[in-house]
Predict the 3D structure of the following.
Amino acid sequence: MSENAVPVRTVDVILNFYRLEVLTGEEAKHLTKSDLTPTPKPEAIQTVYMRVLHLLFRFTPECHFMVPLLQNIQHPEYQEGVTGIISVYVRMRQFLPMCFVYDFALNDLLAPKKQRTLFILSAIMNYLQFRKLRLNVLAEKQTKIRASLDMQQTYAKRVQEAETKIAKLSTIPPEQQAEASKLDAALSELNTIIKNEYKEVNTINDSITEWKSKVAEKTQKLAQAKMDVNNTKENITKLKSQIVESPEELKIQMEKMRKDVKNIKSSIEQADEFVVELQNMVHRVTHTDLEIQQMYSLLQELEIGMNDRKQEYEERLQFIAQDEKKQKDLKNLCKEEEQLKRSLGMKLDKEIKQNIRRQKEKEAKEQHIKNVLGQCKQVHQKREEKADQIKEISRESQQLKVQIQSLKDVSRKQTEAAQAMYGTLSAAMDELDGRIEMQILNLKEDAIKMSANFPL
């Protein structure tokens, strides 16, 4: 899992990342490739780990050296140099399992190796990059939530404005309600009058068509009668030219012709009367046409007003449709907002819990720091006492050194004297040994002589 999750980076990539993302100021400038390869420097690695803990948990490097020292511990000043390293070791042991590193040891701080430190630094780098990506995603989500909240507020304002407009369009103001009721009554009256006049106009048009048909029939009859008269005149002229009739027959024919002429004149007079009546009717019709045109103009004005009302009604329907769409969008946005609020509530609860934990930890740390400071004061007092004791001991040691020096001088003189005595004694002993050996040799010679004199 660690091999798949933690790709080991090169030294240059790790240096650039920690210089840009973790270290600041002079520490970033002083961190070089020689601090990591071929043998990593423990001081540089420890500072990098401290800065990583500071970046993630706001645990400053000074806090590593503020470990509470119990009063029962003898000589607490001997543990001051070890507290920082042990604090970094404990915090890194708590943090590195999140980076898939489970075997962090104290040698990784005191005597780090190249491959091991590169593996740990690349794991921390991978975790920091993942953390940065998730923080960016969180920031984008927060911006989206803020934008959606702003859009929701704008939509709510627009919906309120649309509702006020719809209310204004749908409700007639009290000043114009009387005029509107009068206009409605006048419109109803005009509609009834127009319907009655349309009926009268239709009846008049029907009568005019009937009269026109009658006039056409009579004009046809007149034309036929004129044709008949012309034919009769032609026949008369032909007959006069051909036949010489008797005067009686001529008289009879003339009387017939006179009767026919009278009938034709009477029919012509009747037709003239019909024409006059028709002219009167046409005059009436023109008058009614003018009235109808006036009414038509009024109707057009009313139609324009009705069209305006229809447009207003259509706009109202459009506003209602837009309102429904916006309400649907609002419902969707409300659902999204509820979901986001839930997620925000969860996050806020987590943040509140984390803040409470942090506050408790902060208070505990502050209390811890106060206790540590108090203990540090006690330690400083003890240090001062110990320093006084050390001064006294140093004075005594100086005195002892003087005494030891004097004793050394005496012992040196005594050793010199002893060496001189030892030299003289060793010389005397050598002489005695020589004499003893000479006597032993002499005794041996004597023994040999005696043995030779006294055979067995």
User: Anything to note?
Assistant: The chain is about 85% helix and 0% strand. The mean pLDDT is 79. The two ends are 104 Å apart (CA to CA). Residues 47 and 160 are 60 Å apart (CA to CA).
